[in-house]
Design a protein that fits this description.
Order of helices and strands: HEHEHEHEHEHHEHEEHEEHHEE
Largest sheet: 7 strands, mixed
CATH architecture of the largest domain: 2-Layer Sandwich
Helix content: 40-55%
């Protein structure tokens, strides 16, 4: 059977007892089949459980400091699915009832029978694995339903707007007077903004559910960046300085589609917020082990910069966040571009960082690993 994350964590067995003798006996019984961790106090047990998940915990009732009942109560707060077995040398009906009411899986008396406690732990392990696997299946079903809905939504929203954009281009090729041409250009610009907003919302919504679905294509990074910068200069009517090293490998393999989205958002941001300033885009690279390569993109401007409170704790990357959130703000947008860019950068195993000072411009650095193609 394939071992997944949940099965691996459920094989972690925590033994809690302030008496060394029963602790060591239990360790010897279970060390060959489980990843056994020892805690000599209730406080240590709770600290350990917060650091790593345990599938099964065996705890004594009477201990110095926190009792086994206290440990049970706290363990269930940390992970309600953890199976907790309570041991005691002083069994009372009231203690047993309290332990069971707090979620104990079983209540055993010392001295314990080795064969019986092995069977109990095995059953607890099976229960824990079943519970966590069931949750995974539920999450998978929910994510599949969300993905299906977003695919349908994407089709239903993109089809009509693609038609609008297509017919606007056809209309622009017809005989129009100056006023008509101006009107059509305004309609085109508004339609493109609407289209980009749709893409941002859909792409951001898919981020949590798109694990393992990255594109993997062969592409020329210089060509991608040059085309992207030219498109933005034409659309925004700004000049963008571009720097690309001469010795950059011609073809690499990586998530071209996702890299392109991040770069487009960063360049659009610079063009939008620093339209009257100097804007620059540069690409560098670092050779890693083997054929691996790290591409490093810098998008900078000499514009207004970003206030320190929006840089603190990465607030600038929060979704739907803009420095000026008022209805009278000078720049439009949903505030999703940087959140989407950072989300994609993380999915790519890369990084997105910002340096800025109010009144002195900004610099965004996007780094991502690719592999060099062998020619």
């Amino acid at each position: 059977m394939t071992t997944n994350v949940n099965e691996s964590s459920s094989r972690r067995l925590l033994i809690v007892d302030d008496d060394e003798s029963p602790r060591e006996s239990l360790r010897i019984i279970f060390c060959s089949n489980y990843d056994v961790t020892i805690a000599s106090s209730g406080e240590e047990a709770i600290e350990l459980s917060r650091a790593v998940p345990f599938g099964v915990v065996i705890t004594d009732i009477r201990m110095r400091g926190l009792s086994g009942i206290d440990v049970l109560r706290e363990l269930k707060k940390v992970n309600p699915k953890t199976e907790v077995i309570v041991l005691t040398a002083f069994e009372t009906l009231e203690t047993a009832r309290q332990a069971i009411n707090l979620g104990a899986s079983d209540y055993l008396k010392k001295p314990f029978d080795a064969e019986h406690i092995q069977m109990v732990v095995s059953n607890c392990y099976a229960n824990y694995f079943a519970a966590t696997s069931r949750d995974e299946l539920i999450r998978a079903d929910v994510n599949a339903a969300k993905n299906n809905f977003l695919d349908i939504l994407s089709h239903e929203l993109n089809t009509p707007i693609n038609g609008v954009l297509g017919f606007i281009e056809l209309l622009q090729d017809t005989q129009l007077n100056k006023d008509q041409a101006d009107f059509v250009e305004i309609i085109r610009d508004c339609s493109w903004k609407y289209y980009e907003h749709i893409q941002d919302i859909l792409n951001y919504a898919k981020l949590p559910m798109a694990q393992g679905e990255l594109s993997e294509t062969s592409f020329n990074p210089a060509t991608v960046l040059i085309k992207l910068v030219k498109e933005e200069m034409k659309k925004s009517k700004v000049h963008i300085d571009l720097e690309i090293p001469q010795d950059l490998p011609q073809y690499v393999t990586g998530a071209e589609s996702e890299i392109r989205v991040v770069l487009r958002k960063l360049v659009q941001n610079a063009a939008k917020f620093a339209a009257q300033a100097t804007i620059g885009v540069s690409m560098n690279f670092e050779r890693l082990s083997g054929r691996n390569l790290r591409l490093i993109f810098n998008v900078w401007d000499t514009g207004p910069g970003i206030a320190s409170e929006y840089l603190a704790d990465g607030k600038i990357f929060d979704p739907f966040t803009q420095e000026d959130a008022s209805w009278t703000r000078s720049q439009d947008g949903l505030g999703l571009g940087l959140a989407l860019s950072q989300g994609l950068a993380k999915r790519l195993g890369g990084s997105l960082e910002v340096k800025s000072e109010l009144g002195n411009g900004s610099q965004f650095t996007f780094a991502v690993s690719v592999s060099v193609e062998e020619l």
